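Hello,

Our lab assistant flagged a job as stuck in the queue for most of the afternoon. It eventually completed. Since we weren't sure the result was trustworthy after the delay, we are filing this so someone can double-check. Below is the sequence as submitted and the structure that was eventually returned. Let us know if re-running is recommended.
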Amino acid sequence: MSHHSLLSFCRALLVSSAAIVPSCITLVALPACADEVTRTANESAIDSRLARERNAAHAGDATAQYAMGRRYESGDEVAKDDFYAAGWFRKAAAQGHAGAQWRYGTLLGAGNGVIQDKAGGADWLRKAADQGLAEAQAELGSYYYVGWGVDEDEAQSFALSLAAAKQGLASAQEDVGSFYETGRGVEQDFAKALDWYGRAAEQGDSRAQHRLASMIFAGNGVEADASRAEQWYRRAATQGHVEAQLALARMYVQGLGVERDVRQAHAWVRRVADREERSSSDWPAMVEAHVALAYLAARGPDDLRDDAQVVTSIGRVVEFAGEGEGFGTLPDDLLAIVRARADRGEVDAMTTLSALYGYGHGVTQDVAQALRWTRKAAAEGDPSAQFLLARKYASGNGVTEDAANAREWLEKAAKKDAVACYTLATELMSSDRVPGDARRGFRILRKMARWGEFLAYSALARAYQQGIGTKPNQAQALRWLHKAVTEGDVYAKCALAKALHAGEGTARDDVAAYRMFVDAGKAVGCEQASADFAAKISPADVDSALSDPDDPRGKASSKRRAH
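-- returned structure --
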């Protein structure tokens, strides 16, 4: 129902109601219509404001361009898109807008929305920092701290962070506290560290709250106070800070600053263990959490006892622990739980034992024991164990190298596991292939692709490009590259970007190639191709690639390319 028709309906309802029913009932009917009218009016106001802002941005208004960039960066009333955000920031930055220089420099240095250029990002940040923008000063300070696009310089990093901190930026205040606590870039001073951490912590910065709690707990620069530390740990933990969550768990286990409570400890480590690990930096915390879960599941109160959790947590520790992390020595009672479940035929326990002995994590490394449990799991039909056994026979890892046995186990794994199936196909199509094997490998890939297994898409594209197992067909190669790209395959994006730039099997299109290189730029093996391309593309094509879809100039350039 349109805004106009809704108003008409409400008016008609009011008139008719007043004629036939008591006034109190008429009043009951008012709010629903009034709320709907208000909502529709608000939506119209938002659309109108966005349209005015977009028109002003297209007309060259730097403030509006920056605002549009922020909208696209955050997804505020527009679809989130770093490409268009970078495009608007780039336009406003060129006009000297400090905020836009900060955001464009940050995106450029990180390679978000644009092809990465660390030095270029630092240059734009410097322009904004020179205008006194705290956020740019803090960001540039972090560049100097690690040598990102600039020479590493801790003193310069401290000076920039301090300038931003004095303006009240919480993240910079936390950084300054860290400088004073560690003595990097400035003389160590615990009192000043506490002061700066405190300022940021009061603003809600979870990193500062965690650091402040840690100093108070340890008594660095202040009298040790576990109870006060717990309060700051809790404030950080409730915001999702994983180290603070683990610190709280330790305090509950030991009864430091709080009453001893293993269930509370379990709740906090469970939060950490259940997080989706987004990068390797999350792994140490996750490993510590799973170590704690394994102990609690084996030795905790009855309601926390869970042998299956013991097996799962030990497996996660072995999978993600780095050197010196996890179990120094796996306690006998925990190992006994895993062994008992493996003896009962549980595949997860078998594969966990295989990993424990194979890596020598918490137990004496024993290749024969690792192989024994891998074989048992493989015999039970576990495809991951079958695949691992195939790799062992192929490489001679713990067994006599045996190509026939390797192929036999790989064939078995391939019946249930997509990665094993893909590996089998690519091995059949390898450089020492024979025609019959290559054709079979190609057929396997084609069947996988028809089943929707996107692992096969890029490999099929290569097969068509190079004529492996089939006749060369560039059109088909591009088709499968495009399908791989839609599944997020960064290597396919890199290959497609190169094809678009070179005009191989398709019309040359540097604007489309730019966007594809941006998506693939951080893929291993694509960084240099991406940088080389960025050095050659014209500024006009970069502007066109980053243009807002409603930008009439961007539409015009797209139309010209089409013709």
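-- support follow-up --
The delay was a queue issue, not a problem with the job. The result is valid. The mean pLDDT is 89. The longest helix spans residues 23-58.
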